[in-house]
Design brief:
- This protein is α/β, with parallel strands linked by helices and 297 residues long.
- The protein has one domain (3-267): LmbE-like (Rossmann fold).
- Helices cover 39% and strands 15% of the residues.
- The protein contains nine helices and eight strands.
- It has helices at residues 32-38, 57-64, 80-88, 92-108, 124-144, 177-189, 194-204, 231-242, 251-267; strands at 3-6, 18-22, 41-46, 71-78, 113-117, 149-153, 170-175, 211-216.
- It has an eight-stranded mixed sheet with strand order 1-7-8-6-5-2-3-4, sandwiched between helices.
- Helix 2 links the parallel strand 3 and strand 4 (71-78).
- Helix 4 crosses helix 9 and helix 5 runs parallel beside helix 9 (251-267).
- The radius of gyration is 18 Å and the shape is globular.
- The chain starts with a strand and ends in a 30-residue tail after the last helix.
- It binds zinc ion (2 copies).
- One zinc ion is lined by residues 166, 170, 172, 213.
- One zinc ion (ZN) binds next to loops.
């Protein structure tokens, strides 16, 4: 074993078919030690092209290949601009199709353990990724009576003022020296994330990235617990003021109706969550067969 666990809520050794689902290519670096050892199927929501329009999928493919990890069919389902447009346009069918895509693959491949982005209110793609995975886990249990252990990991806690919360639901994966060295090398070689990687190491030091925290999702579809506006809304407003963006993705107006529709579709619930009664349930249609996934650009 190149690594060891501390704070273990359940033995992860019992899971034979792990999966990693991330909002953007590059997130896999944060759990490099875990993927190196457990070789999950890897799904990526967007191509990470951002506003520059240059995909990061090739960099992630290059990172995964030496680890013996093959990329999944759902690998860059949409461009970042496409995802933003789908959110602003409230293209609910696209999101439900993405849930179907994950569900189908989880069932076909017998996935029994999934690790995916946490909902942090930092980037809409991360929060959408979390919601899609929660829905797919529910769908798999409904369609097969099989339970998938659902875990999340934080991507942005290292640069935030507040401390990351750790409790008995965490699995802490402690990397051996050699694994930590390979992880940091991989991060430094990931060309499109150079600035972020340098910033993270400068701020926290290399040792900080030795522990990888996988948190068990106790309650799927738990809303992001933020005080005030989520970060993406504040930054969006700044970008609009600078003339860089045409519009801002807002939680109440754009994100919540999509999250609510995905949740309602997965759980069959027609009730709006408490405190969000102003938002009608947008989609009540059941999962009527598999929809064709299209890029909404
Ligand atoms: Zn990201
Ligand atoms: Zn933890």
């Amino acid at each position: 074993m190149a690594t060891s666990y501390s704070c273990v809520p359940e033995s992860l050794e019992v899971f034979a078919k792990p999966a990693l689902v991330v909002g953007h290519p590059g997130h896999e670096l944060k759990v490099f030690g875990w993927i190196s050892e457990y070789k999950p199927r890897v799904y990526v929501l967007t191509d990470g092209s951002g506003r520059q329009g240059v995909s990061r999928l090739l960099s992630t493919t290059r990172l995964l290949a030496p680890l013996g990890i093959e990329k999944e069919n759902a690998f860059g389902l949409i461009s970042d601009i496409g995802l933003y447009r789908a959110i602003l346009a409230q293209d609910i069918p696209w999101f439900l199709t993405a849930v179907d895509c994950l569900t189908e693959s989880f069932i076909e491949n017998g996935v029994d353990f999934v690790v995916a982005d946490a909902m942090e209110g930092f980037n809409p793609a991360h929060d959408i990724c979390r919601t899609l995975v929660d829905a797919a886990v529910v769908a798999v249990s409904q369609e097969t009576s099989r339970t998938i252990a659902n875990y999340k990991f934080c991507l942005t806690e290292w640069e935030r003022v507040r401390q990351e919360h750790h409790d008995s639901g965490c699995s802490h994966f402690v990397l051996a020296d050699e694994t930590l060295r390979r992880k940091l090398n991989a991060a430094e070689e990931y060309a499109e994330l150079q600035d972020e990687v340098c910033k993270a190491i400068d701020l926290r030091g290399r040792e900080y990235f030795r522990i990888e925290c996988l948190k068990k999702v106790i309650q799927p579809f738990q809303e992001y617990d933020y005080a005030g506006k989520p970060d993406y809304e504040t930054w969006g407003e700044q970008r609009v003021a600078e003339g860089a963006y045409e519009s801002t993705i807002r939680y109440e107006e754009h994100m919540f109706p999509i999250i609510d529709a995905i949740r309602n579709n997965a759980t069959g619930s027609k009730a709006c969550s408490a405190g969000r009664a102003t938002h009608a349930s947008h989609v009540q249609a059941g999962r009527s067969g598999r929809r064709a996934l299209r890029n909404s650009e």
